[in-house]
């Protein structure tokens, strides 16, 4: 495949989403938010009242759920799930926890694999997730793994939610982040780990622009 791909993997709260979107924007490339696909299936499963312990139903749901990304005129990315704008619901901790549970089902990951690969279109793709460099785009020319301390990730999420007026505690968020990390890293299929050739960037204490610049520095002449 001659469409260039940059993969950006890492745990929740590592800044992947913000950094990936900014880098895609600077490059003029497409952007894949793979977590949104897992979250969309989680939300569709909740709407259909599916049991999170029924893998067969969840796999059907992964195949059947329509997921569309739309950019609004002011550059906002909206996600439509079965035709409904579910952007805000997708960002909730409930949707994240459901996504993480269904993401551990191998057939769900297979169901979403080709949909993710379909985002690979000219002039290029920035793919954001957990297994972009290891499983979905193993031939990507550039692979980045972003990390940050769990405390800093909890604090970033806390500030995000507080700005939205959601009431949460820092300790509660830290607990959820540690639980989700453990589940994502220990599952049998596509566990969260850096590709051997990935460049690891620890974003603890770094600002968004500094991280974006270090990522773009990996693609000389393109940023
Ligand atoms: O990145 P985000 O927090 O939106 O992802 C939600 C959940 O979806 C993650 O906790 C992870 O379990 C799952 N996921 C995944 N593989 C990806 C992206 C997300 O397993 N490529």
UniProtKB/TrEMBL annotation:
It is an enzyme of class 2 (transferase). Keywords: ATP-binding, Cytoplasm, Kinase, Nucleotide-binding, Transferase. It holds the Pfam family Cytidylate_kin. InterPro entries: Cytidylate_kin, Cytidylate_kinase_dom, P-loop_NTPase. GO terms for molecular function: kinase activity. ATP binds at residues 10-18. It comes from the Bacteria. It is found in: Cytoplasm. NCBIfam families: cmk. PANTHER family: CYTIDYLATE KINASE (PTHR21299:SF2), CYTIDYLATE KINASE/PANTOATE-BETA-ALANINE LIGASE (PTHR21299). Belongs to the cytidylate kinase family. Type 1 subfamily. This is Cytidylate kinase.
